[in-house]
Specification:
- It contains 14 helices and ten strands.
- With 418 residues, it is of the alpha/beta class.
- The chain has a four-stranded mixed sheet. The protein has a two-stranded parallel ribbon with strand order 1-2.
- Helix 3 crosses helix 4, helix 4 runs parallel beside helix 6 and helix 6 runs antiparallel to helix 7.
- It is globular and about 85 Å long.
Length: 418
Amino acid sequence: YPTSVLTTARDIIYLWVSRMIMSGLYFMHEIPFEDVYIYATVLDEHGKRQSKSLGTGVDPLDVIKLYGADALRFGLLIRAARGQDIRFAKVERNEKKEPVRQKQVEESRNFANKIWNASRFVLMNLGDAAGVAPRWVPSDALGDRWILAEMNSTIEQVTSALSEYRLNEAAQTMYHFFWDSFCDWYIELSKSLVASREDTDETRAARCRIVYVLETSLRLLHPLMPHITEEIWQRLPHEGESIMLASWPESNHAREDPEARQQMETLIALITSVRNIRSELNVPPQSRPSLYVATGDLATGALVSDNTEQIKRLARVDQILLSRTLPILRSAARGVVSGMEIAVPLEGLIDLDKERERIGKEMSRKEDEARALASRLDNVSFVERAPGNVVEEARARHEELIGEIEKLRATLSALSGT
């Protein structure tokens, strides 16, 4: 018997798989494999089997030509939930019948680009690489404690998912860890040290840590995206001939740090809230407003105070004014996040009259749409005769609009100083 796992489609379980098992028991007196993985069938976008004669088939070579083999592989794996088939859209073509786009795999191509760009940042900042290796140098910094705990949890989840053939969960876990935790936050938190021109023990330690997280992530990603992970791994400081032969990462309970994870969640929520205010109110990127933070919780106040420089840099604010209650401020955007009240004064940063006019027009447009939907939903004939999914979509959109209108109304009040 050559293998311990059989991968197969569900339509030949009785035709072939059961016969293999019975034949093995009869002739060899033991079963031929321990596990049978029944993979998803790739259907067309309408849920029907792909057909060359009907022109609904997708040539994988066309997709690979557009986005690469890893992107196609990851795009299918992230959708390969157990017991469910995969709906796969046709490749869009131009007037010359040349393949130009496949939206589902395009998302995975973007992820591959993210992996490449993050790795390039790390490689560009290794210096002469003397003394830099993928190893964890102990650190008391919150960001370092947090990423180590996040990575430890990711190792546990991915290892468990792969051992139980939950391939889509393994892919989703790695996607969120690498893109959200590593790229969006840890690289930004450690950038000032990693990219420093000074060659000190502190900068070398930071580089060792970021290489360690990247290299471990590549090993976890390798079964899902074998080509790009091998290519990048070979360029990093490493031991061994190939990432294929590298040991699988192991979790360590000593690296669990619920306090760091909870504190980092609070900081991420705070920074994200300020970023959303800037984005929604079109605050110019070069502007550095003040940030008022009010909290009666001593631990939360200490957390903000201890991480002031990181918050200022990542939220792009000039100063943080911490108190138990917010002062009276006119024309300030406000919010409540993780037990804190926050306010960003806007006077002098944006054209308040123009912004109030823009928000007023957007609110009127959404109110008109909400009224039209409410009228349809009040129509008994529409509710009874329209397809159920159409009615549900109308209800969901109406609720979404009500929430957006309330948010715009609150923003308008803040800009009006009320």
